[in-house]
Amino acid sequence: MNILKKICIIIILLLIYIYVCFIAFLPNNYIIIEGEELEINTLLGMSLVSKENESLQTVQAVSNINKNKLENVTKLDFSLNLFNLFNVKNVSVNIIPKTTVVPVGEAIGMKLYTEGVLVVGMSEIEGKKPYENSGIKEGDRIIQINENNISNTTELMQEVNASYGNKIDIKYVHNEETITTSIKPAKNKDNEYKLGLWVRDATAGVGTLTFYEPSTGMFACLGHGILDVDTSDLITIANGELVTTNILDIQKGERGTPGEIRGTIEAGYTIGQISKNTEFGVYGILNTPSYLSISPNDAIEVASRDEIEEGDAEIICELENGKRKKYKIEIQNIFIGNNKDNKSMLLKVTDEELLEKTGGIVQGMSGAPIIQNDKFIGAVTHVLVNDPAMGYAVFADIMIKQMRTIN
Description:
This protein has 407 residues and is mainly beta. The chain folds into 3 domains: 23-96, Immunoglobulin-like (Sandwich); 100-111 and 203-405, Beta Barrel (Thrombin, subunit H), CATH 2.40.10; 124-195, PDZ domain (Pdz3 Domain, Roll), CATH 2.30.42.10. Helix content is 12%, strand content 46%. It is built from 4 helices and 26 strands. It has helices at 2-25, 153-161, 352-358, 396-405; strands at 29-33, 46-50, 58-59, 75-82, 86-96, 100-122, 141-145, 148-149, 168-174, 177-183, 186-187, 193-194, 197-213, 218-221, 237-244, 246-251, 260-264, 270-278, 281-286, 300-301, 311-320, 323-334, 345-349, 369-372, 375-384, 387-395. The strands form 5 sheets. It has a 6-stranded antiparallel β-barrel with strand order 6-13-14-19-18-15. The radius of gyration is 25 Å and the shape is globular.
């Protein structure tokens, strides 16, 4: 009997744990596009009750999904109720209107400036390790020294040298948590004070400009985020610049060796301001679209994922300076329920000219817009190293939602 009671208690505690975890991880906010199906899972005994529309109330098991076509609405507020007795969470759904964008496909440069300075390495200073017990690790960002904000490496060096070897207070960010520590700088052979930390405040790269939205002036690039080359972490930026680029050459991709579009931004013009680097692309405002060979008259509708079909499509990319062109591809698989990463579609390059020039998808082609049935459906994000003709793409609706979160 005692064993049975213990088993029952364990089961009850496990169920409570499952419900608590579900409530904690259920997002407070959803973003969907007008006309898109709303999909929210609920556990047995839970109900999502609309505060404005009782017809949207649902009580469902975890295996079922609540789906409602929503049009001409800007926001819905739900309360998550437990056994129709307790309100355990409020959930908001923001509905953004359908939009049109201009698919670009032009090679573009990006300069990103970090929020604070990024720690990319560590070294001894005259046999000492000043950082040793500070808790600071590679990938962390130093944002303050002695309550003075740090935005670049010059400011950091000035603050450290001004300490004359006295202990300094440092505020840094580790895994989105802000932490305060202290370090006593060490003097090197040049009589300069150092922390023993290698830091960087900026990075740059070349990719493909995906689209421009004439109604807001916003742009999107890449379809994936820019990672730090040393830490492989997504770079948290303070701001950045969108810069014209000059294509130098193309390294053709082969099985086991990814190719690359090589370009330079040294003589480029700044044509936009970058405001966000996300796992689903780089976004900002395009200030001077006249530098690009695009027109608002070229805007087309953004497709929802349920409009995408397996089969023929086209990508737009620039392989020669000033010459954008459409190339044939085939959508081979659509992962319609995927919202967790930027591998929404599996595609294959079928265009003989593109295969001859690049071998398929190459680095620098990330962000190339995909067109199907005269609608923008997504952007190229990855290449399969063992088969450069194959790659992945992100849904257009994911990029639009990401853009709206920073507008």
